[in-house]
Amino acid sequence: MSTYQATHLETNEEVTRPAVLLNPHHKPAGHGGQDIDPSVEAFHTSLPQYGSTALHTLPSIAQDLGFAHVFLKDESTRFGLPSFKILGASWAIHRALCQRLQLPPSTTLEDVKQALSADKAAHVRLVTCTEGNWGRAVARMAKYYAIPATIYVP
């Protein structure tokens, strides 16, 4: 593996660094060795405006870095929002609503929406704080489920 010389900004000490830093905490199995629940992908693909994330090739950057390929993951149009936050927010909200309604997580968005409208005693409101895209994702999910949301913004 190739290396490069770096100078510490305060001490001027010269150190040799590897050209590529490897994460010592990386687990090759991915998610802690746990299998991903297939209902997660099924849920996300059922959301309005679902689409795969675009990957853009960056050949000049790859060449500059000495890599065969460099890709840029473009999340600017994920579910109509300029952020990946909708993935986590949507699944967290869906799981919480399913738990509240005593439904399995594999329940579809439409079936949860119907259960919410049928169970007037549920009194469900989504509440979160945000500085940006998380709040937009929560608000979008509230719209999908036709439930109120309160988003606090500093």
Automatic annotation (TrEMBL):
Domain of life: Eukaryota
Classification of source organism: Eukaryota, Fungi, Dikarya, Ascomycota, Pezizomycotina
Protein name: Tryptophan synthase beta chain-like PALP domain-containing protein
Domain spans labelled Tryptophan synthase beta chain-like PALP: 48-154
Pfam families: PALP
Organism: Friedmanniomyces simplex
